[in-house]
Amino acid sequence: MIFAHANPTNSIELKLNFYPRIVKKTKIKRGAWIAPGCIILPGVTIGENSVVGAGSVVTKDVPPYTVVAGNPAKVIKHLQPKPEVKDSEL
After folding, report:
1. Residues 40, 72, 37, 35: is their CA dihedral positive or negative?
2. Can the peptide bond before residue 36 be classed as cis, meaning omega within 30 degrees of 0?
3. What pTM was computed for the model?
4. What is the DSSP string of the chain?
5. Tens of pLDDT along 18-60?
């Protein structure tokens, strides 16, 4: 699930004082892999060639070439980019 907005309550008091409506762009950069069952919250950017583990809840930006997993998602490791590979070599 990828969210670009959050409107968590019908209570005007809660909405005005604690949980305002949020509308933010959610970005998924080129080459990112998001496994099944993930929740990505509003305003989060998933960096280029990053991996989000199955069932993760992503509450913060994921840097490029990074593997994250968990609830909330935490950095598992950083990937080392290799020299450019042509599509014909894959």
Report:
1. positive
2. no
3. 0.81
4. -B-SEE---S-HHHHHHT---EE---EE-TT-EE-TT-EE-TT-EE-TT-EE-TT-EE-S-B-TTEEEEETTEEEEEE--PPSP--GGG-
5. 888 889 999 999 999 999 999 999 999 999 999 999 999 999 9
> Which sign does the torsion angle of CA 79, 76, 68, 61 carry?
negative
Using DSSP bridges, classify how beta strands 27-28 and 45-46 pair: parallel, antiparallel or unpaired. Answer: parallel
**Of 41, 38, 35, nearest to 3 (Cα)?**
41
**Amino acid (1-letter code) at residue 82:** K
User: Which of 37, 40, 38, 39 has its CA nearest to residue 27?
Assistant: 40
28: its two tokens: 């998924």
Q: Are 7 and 19 in contact (CB under 8 A)?
A: no
Residue whose tokens read 């993760």: 56
